[in-house]
Amino acid sequence: MSTRLAVLASGRGSNLRALHEYLARDDRDTLAHIALVLSDHADAGALAFARSRDILSVAIDGGTLGGERLLAQLRSHRVDLVVLAGYMRLIPEIVVNAYRGRILNVHPALLPAFGGRGMYGSRVHAAVIAAGARVSGATVHFVDERYDHGAVIAQWPVPVLSGDTPQALAARVLRVEHALYPPAVLAVAQQRISLDESGRSTHMHLPKLDDSAFVLDSLDDAALRNAIGVALSD
After folding, report:
1. CA–CA separation, 114 and 121 (whole Å)
2. What is the DSSP string of 60-74?
3. Catalytic residue selected from 20, 33, 107, 141
4. Which domain holds residue 134?
5. What is the DSSP letter of 30?
6. How many CB atoms lie within 10 A of CB 225?
7. Whole-number pLDDT of residue 76
8. What is the radius of gyration, based on Cα positions, of the chain?
């Protein structure tokens, strides 16, 4: 049976698009599919994209939506796995408890560095550059009661180049997010990656990668997707 995904997004939903396109290829939608898109902004691009693809879309009032109401939305649509895609609000504890090990997020840095409350979007990349870091990247992680704190599922490094602006670094990291997040979501949907009782990620049968796979500039988009697919046994 295909795993039912709910995607929560506050903005344009580029990771939603990447996930939808990934699942549409090679019959992956028989394994997992996007059943619901929720946004706390009625004019969010994510909702418009969902409507254009005939995916059920719901605008929610993030300011007043309590955990019980969000949980009721997820349960009423028989959601198996919750995927955050640029969703700016903290997930209520009641939802985290009900879906523990079944809520994922992608963050535009290598956690635990440059994460936490207020660290999102260009703020993250500006902080990375200001700190003089030579490497940033993308992190996919399970969601718990704190911002950017849950167990790491997958990370991929991205070089910080001399003269980088937050916008230039953001574009480089986003490219990796789009390649890394969808196969990580599918791996969790298929229980190839899970959260164990101690709160740590458990990965099943991951092969060893050639070191050259991590040199971002040596890979075109297809090669990058292939390297990440190998890492996640996709």
Report:
1. 11
2. --TTT--HHHHHHHH
3. 107
4. 3-231
5. G
6. 18
7. 96
8. 17
Instruction: Kindly report whether the peptide bond that precedes residue 159 is cis, defined as omega within 30 degrees of 0.
Output: no
Inter-residue contact 59 to 74 (CB < 8 Å): no
Distance CA 28, CA 93 (A): 31
Q: What pLDDT does 209 receive?
A: 47
Across 211-215, average pLDDT: 48
Number of structural domains (the chain) is 1
How much is the average pLDDT of 123-129?
98
* Beta strand segments in the chain, E: 3-8, 32-39, 57-59, 81-84, 103-107, 135-142, 152-159, 193-195, 201-203
* Three-state DSSP class for residue 105: strand
Nearest to 204 by CA among 214, 218, 216, 194: 194
pTM for the whole thing?
A: 0.89
pLDDT higher at 179 or 226: 179
Average pLDDT over the chain reads 90
Q: Is the pLDDT of residue 211 over 60?
A: no
Residue 227, φ and ψ in degrees, nearest 5: -60, -40
The pLDDT of 165-182, averaged and rounded, is: 96
Q: How many CB atoms lie within 10 A of CB 115?
A: 21
How many whole angstroms separate alpha carbon 118 and alpha carbon 14?
20
CATH code of residue 105: 3.40.50.170
Residue 67: which pLDDT band, with cuts at 50, 70 and 90? confident
20 is catalytic: no
